Amino acid sequence: MKVRCPDCKAIAELADDFTYVKCTKCEFDMTYGEYVKYIAYKDARYRDILSDYKK
Predict the structure, then answer these.
(1) What does R_g of the chain's alpha carbons equal in angstroms?
(2) CB atoms < 10 A from the CB of 3, how many?
(3) How far is residue 33's CA from residue 52's CA, in Å, rounded to a whole number?
(4) Could you tell me the pTM of the whole model?
(5) CA–CA dist 46, 55 (Å, integer)
(6) Residue in 50, 24, 26 with CA at minimum distance from that of residue 36
(7) The organism sits in which domain of life (predicted)?
(8) Are the C-beta atoms of 21 and 28 separated by less than 8 Å?
(9) Strand partners, 3
(10) CA–CA separation, 22 and 29 (whole Å)
(11) Regarding predicted confidence, which is higher, 45 or 6?
(12) Which percentage of the chain shows pLDDT scores above 90?
């Protein structure tokens, strides 16, 4: 699955089993859980995602 890289805004790869997010352009590499937290803290529009993810 494709998602937007929070660092370089290029297209990143989300593993089919949601275990990691990787961007080959800027070498961004995180687990999906870390990715969700990272984008939630980086962009205020996504902060409600973090509260949903903790449930």
Answers:
(1) 11
(2) 14
(3) 12
(4) 0.74
(5) 16
(6) 50
(7) Archaea
(8) yes
(9) 12
(10) 4
(11) 6
(12) 62
